[in-house]
Design brief:
19% strand, 2 domains, 25% helix, four-stranded parallel beta sheet
């Protein structure tokens, strides 16, 4: 039996687990891929996983009209956060997580592409994952 069962939420044909898959599996964890846009249900309830990774995609977090399944994904991410499931969002996944948590998500006045300085908030410093990062660091956006 794997140490942890991790749900991988992917949003496109070429947008997958990337650099995360190999280290996760090398440590004995199971990574189960699910595509919400397919409208096929996950093999089991997302709340039954030990953690959830939400990855990127070509769509934007505010495009519910073009991608109606995004509304269901926001609700799912809210449920996961409410029950205490660890959720990590990458790229689009971070925007979906922020939006599901009640933040405004939309276009920036200027693009942020490249390496930019980031700083942990007090909440981030207490986080079991982010708290391992230095107080300030460069992050790729």
């Amino acid at each position: 039996m794997p140490l942890m069962q991790i749900l991988s939420v992917v949003h496109g044909g070429n947008v997958r687990e990337g650099v995360f898959a190999e280290p996760i599996r090398a440590r004995g964890h199971e990574l189960v891929e699910w595509r919400p846009a397919s409208r096929r249900p996950s093999t089991r309830a997302p709340e039954d996983y030990d953690a959830v990774l939400v990855f990127g995609g070509a769509m934007h977090a505010d495009q519910e009209e073009e991608h109606p399944w995004l509304r269901d994904e926001y609700a799912l991410i809210r449920r996961l956060v409410d029950v205490g499931t660890p959720v990590m969002g990458i790229c689009l996944g971070a925007q979906l997580l922020a939006r599901a948590a009640g933040a405004r998500v939309g276009p920036m006045s200027e693009p942020e592409i490249g390496w930019f300085p980031a700083e942990l908030t007090p909440s981030g410093e207490r986080d079991p994952v982010l708290g391992r990062l230095p107080a300030t660091f460069d992050a790729f956006q």
